[in-house]
Amino acid sequence: MRNIFSLNYREAKSVVKGLGYPEFQADNLFRWLYLKRVKNFDEMTDLPKGFRSFLWKNFKISYPRIIEKFSAPDGTTKYLFELEDRNKVESVLIPEKKHMTFCISSQVGCRMGCKFCATAQSGLARNLKFYEITGQVLSLLERAEGKVNIVFMGMGEPLDNINEVERSIEMINKWMNISLKRITLSTVCLIDGLERILKKFPNIKIAISLNFPEEKDRTKFMPINRKYPISLIIKKLKELPIKRRERVTIEYVLMDRINDSLKDAEKLGKLLRGLRVKINLIPYNENEFLPWKRPSLKQVEAFASFLRKMNYSVFIRFSKGNEIKAACGQLRAKRG
Ligand code: SAH
């Protein structure tokens, strides 16, 4: 039986029409599914009986299955979901002061091949379907209260799966009632995709994983830099309207003795000169498969204050969930 969540809005409308009901019944269905999150067609009391029995016969209401859960003392919780083909992806729920953050995955694995990232090590198994992305959000919504931020910072490169990611953002925004301002897409900066996403969702937040101030280092650690080099990324950033630029976040993973010297800080500062961006420094999360280390706190702070002296807004993001391997770059695709 088909999962009802695989139905997009257009298809839902045509189902409704085919049965001879007015189109707004598709809206009603989606409200029950995404906003009220009922698990049973009988509870959808304002849908015509005939429509409900059609749904019973043809669809199931199925959330991605949680097969493992790890919680850290601060409440950060990692969920391992099993998809219908037994592939697995991870999402992380992060409680913050005023809201909850959901860190969600867009692919099973990733093919960007960043040397320092655990997800990249197993390559790409497959793209997620839009409803496997919205499914993570639905599932986490059951476990959260209050305002929710969504960050595409789990497994995968969202712009490498742009069709399904776009569809999922549309659903999350329109039917789960989460504002685009609360959705952040983090990317190695696939420029064509970035342009497309900004055109479609002008209010979405963007984070760019720059990580290195020099072409040769970025290419060494992030092979995608051959196709989309730093120079092109900076050029594109400069073309963005000022207001938008202020909201762009530059991510920089700090790795001991790789890209954490004050010389690197200076290069980064010069590179971004004139751009009103926020800089998020992410002290490297070590993992058992890779040799790189996190710099000392002293070094991280020195790097940050150097950039602050150059007038940048700098935030040090100790990613949460380190002890449960739920932090950035520690999510690992497990296949079948
Ligand atoms: N593919 C997207 C989103 C997933 S990665 C992207 O690259 O932006 C989210 C962030 O985690 C990226 O900024 C990435 O550079 C960072 N990251 C990867 N491995 C890491 C690690 N081991 N420690 C800290 N951050 C890491």
What does this structure look like?
This protein has 336 residues and is α/β, with parallel strands linked by helices. The chain has two domains: 2-60, Orthogonal Bundle (DNA polymerase, domain 1), CATH 1.10.150.530; 65-324, Aldolase class I (TIM Barrel). Helix content is 34%, strand content 20%. The chain has helices at 9-18, 24-35, 49-58, 130-141, 162-175, 191-200, 215-221, 230-239, 242-246, 262-271, 297-309; strands spanning 2-3, 59-60, 65-71, 77-82, 88-95, 100-103, 107-109, 124-127, 148-152, 183-187, 205-209, 249-254, 278-283, 313-316. The chain is elongated, with a radius of gyration of 21 Å. The two termini are 22 Å apart. The mean pLDDT is 94. S-adenosyl-L-homocysteine (SAH) binds at residues 116-117, 153, 157, 186-188, 209, 211, 251, 253, 282, 284-285, 328-329.
Brief sketch in words of this structure:
Helices cover 34% and strands 20% of the residues. It is an alpha/beta fold and 336 residues long. The model has no long low-confidence stretch (mean pLDDT 94).
Mean pLDDT comes to 94
CATH homologous superfamily title of the largest domain? Aldolase class I
**Uncertain segments:** none
End-to-end Cα distance, whole Å, is 22 Å
Number of strands: 14
In CATH, the architecture of the largest domain is Alpha-Beta Barrel
- Oligomeric form: single chain
User: How large, in whole angstroms, is the Cα Rg?
Assistant: 21 Å
Query: Per DSSP, what share of the residues sits in E-state strands of 2 or more residues?
Result: 15-25%
Tell me, briefly, the overall form.
Answer: elongated
Bound molecules: S-adenosyl-L-homocysteine
Strand and helix order: EHHHEEEEEEEHEHEHEHHHEHEHE
Estimated helix fraction: 25-40%
The biggest beta sheet reads: 10 strands, mixed
Structural class: alpha/beta
Using the coordinates shown, work out and report the CATH topology of the largest domain.
TIM Barrel
Task: Name the strands of the widest sheet in spatial order.
Answer: 3-4-5-6-9-10-11-12-13-14
